[in-house]
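Task 17 of the worksheet. Students: predict the tertiary structure of the chain below and write it out as structure tokens. Keep your answer in the requested format; marks are given for formatting as well as content.
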Amino acid sequence: MDALRFVDAAEEEHFAAMSLIHALGWRATYPGYVPQKFLDEEITDGRWIETFRENRRTGRARSCLLYSGGRPVCCATYGHARTEAGVQAGSVCKFHNAVYAGWGEIISFYTHPGETGKGYGSVLMEEILRRLKAGGFQDCYLYVLRENEGARRFYARHGFAWDGTWEEIPFPPDTVCIDLRYVRRL
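Model answer:
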């Protein structure tokens, strides 16, 4: 394993690297669950650049990349639990998170598909959990696609468990995916 380092996303090159990792992750993981037309038309390499830029500008969330040598291999976005409605897939999602106010949330977590199985995700997850705890959070959660069994096993290995709640994520024209809420103490 090359030298590893964490980088707080603050520059355009970081936002672009994170967006690319997200897009590659979606393309590798979600076919058959998310409509293919949506994946083909909406999941561009630069889809999330503006979101990461805005998160940085407003302080709404923080993002971190893990580099192996000079390559970004995985990334995460984290911060205060989202308790407001948000846009997902071009539709408004109403997050039912009011009882989780004051919790930390791992908003996104992706490993480059060519870098999975090398331990990078575990290194980054432990760092994000450390940062959330240092930020004063006692508990945190994340969402994971119900059908994404590999990610569910990964999160379970890191102390997360499904708390029995979920969110419906609508994708045009008529697909609804189910994201399960996984929680853990910090």
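Marker's comment: The radius of gyration is 16 Å. Helices lie at 12-29, 36-42, 49-58, 120-134, 149-157.
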